[in-house]
Amino acid sequence: DVIAERIRALGVIAPGSYDDYQKLTIIPPVKGRPKAMEMVALLVSAQEATARTARDLLPLVAEANDQPTTDLLTQRLDVHEKNAWMLRSLLDD
Predict the structure, then answer these.
(1) At what angle do helices 2-9 and 67-91 cross, to 10 degrees?
(2) Residue 44 CB contacts under 8 Å (≥ 6 apart), including other chains
(3) How many helices and strands in the chain, by DSSP H and E?
(4) Can you tell me the distance from the alpha carbon of 43 to that of 46, in angstroms, rounded to the nearest whole number?
(5) What pLDDT does 92 receive?
(6) CA distances from 20 to 15, 42, 61, 70, 71 (A)
(7) For residue range 68-91, what is the model confidence (pLDDT) as tens digits?
């Protein structure tokens, strides 16, 4: 996992358990069993939240002059924005 590898390269232990991730996420848990299109909307929201997080970190890593992390954030931002766009297109019909 490239994100965990980058975290370790910075000298920090990467989170690895569900509990660790649950403490770090801004994406709320889903309750019940949403219908298919509700699930798509939830996925759009999660992709957008992840993209926002990556975008919000860019100034911090730029200030630290951390080019490898900037590259990683840019790559992740691209993936999550494209995922959100593609999923959003399913909701537009």
Answers:
(1) 150
(2) 84, 87, 88, 91
(3) 4, 0
(4) 5
(5) 82
(6) 6, 22, 23, 23, 25
(7) 999 999 999 999 999 999 999 999
| Spatial contact of 14 and 20, defined as CB atoms under 8 Å apart | no
Longest dimension (CA), the chain: 47
DSSP 35: -
| Distance in angstroms (rounded) separating the CA atoms of residues 90 and 5 | 34
When pLDDT is averaged across residues 53-78 and rounded to a whole number, the result is: 97
At residue 12, what is the residue type?
Answer: V
Q: What is the DSSP letter of 12?
A: -
Alpha-carbon gap, residue 63 to 61, rounded angstroms:
5
**40-49: per-residue pLDDT in tens?**
999 999 999 9
Question: What is the model's pLDDT at position 11?
Answer: 97
